[in-house]
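Field reference: sequence -> structure
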Amino acid sequence: MRIHDLPHPSALPGVPDAAPGASLLAPFEAHESQVRSYCRAFPTVFGRAKGALLFDAGGRRYLDFFAGAGTLAFGHNPDFIKQRLLDYLQADGITHGLDLYTEAKAAFIDSFVQRVLAPRALDYRLQFTGPTGANAVEAALKIARKTTGRHGIFAFSGAYHGLSLGSLAVTANRGKRAAAGTALHDATFVPFPDEHLGAEAVLAWIERLIVDTHSGVEKPAAVILETLQAEGGIKLAPTAWLRELHALLQRHGVLLIVDDIQVGCHRSGPFFSFERAGITPDIVVLSKAISGYGLPMSLVLLQPQLDLWQPGEHTGTFRGNQLAFVGGRAGLELAARLDLQAEVERKGRLCAQRLGERVAGLDPRLAVRGLGLIWGVDGAALGDAFMTRVSARCFELGLVIETAGRRDTVLKLLPPLTIPDAELEEGLAIIEQAVQDSLRG
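Structure field:
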């Protein structure tokens, strides 16, 4: 789709002339906490959704390049998964089971082992934690400390792992950390390899901290890593560096935790983001898209020798969300039917071409980075507010898309993995127009 083919939002069927009236927003403004965030960037009241489309209370259609921060890998209300959930509810299946043995959990475990672990020759124990990714990160950090007897964790600049105290300690954003209101302990941050500090220098830095008895830093229990930093600005770790880091940690008896909460479950193409490097982390953390339908669910994968928990040492009331198990199992089946890895990789190539030629080509100060169906357009060289303006203009044109990175200078593309080509092209065209409009001032 070309820019001039895009209709003005007011010309679209069912589109109101203005945002929802004050009366629709009044309950939120009057009663909801000031902590709310995404709604400030997308100030409308949404009512229904299907696939890659959202519709607000006035009937206006929006393309969704946010997808619940990557939670909705199959888009909104995918029929295949929805029917499985409806069938389960109609049969009065258990909806909440703590960590009781249930048919729904057994079916999910069997499917995960057969469809994900066995084909990759991976042997992990599955730990079901509380419903958020942050809780799974907490569990991963705790078991790393318990099994090694060491308390320190190495994390990376630009990292985001959650906002509970343990996960926040390994999250790099100063603003987020300040909200803790207390000291955050036992984390040492090292640079993430980028244009400022190369991969080999980062490896040397990490090894120096570990082996130098006068580095001032104790040998850590683990290193926690996103192979592709999403909130950090779509920063991709080099494949060779991942292999070398893994080998370095193995030499020194330090565990590797891969946080695949946002970039796992086929977001980068393969099911796990680390597959491109051919490594096997000691611990893997999954959440967001794992339930297939946007239902709360988190999962920690542990090497068997690390599964030294005593019963009840890490619990969570909602770790037994049976609907998430049903949706997750259906999602694994649907991914296989769709050959999702190949589809994501194909669409990723389309994004790379369109963004590189049509968006980055608009101004030499723009840079494009990404993999699979997570992409970033970096406008830092155009000023801190540039991409915020682009995101707002996208919303005016009917596209929901957020920003990421330091000072929100990266436009972050995170569409459903199953988005039809025509809608993907439409969204990319809106981005092109929004960038062009913002460059004009």
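Note: Residues 340-359 form the longest helix (20 residues).
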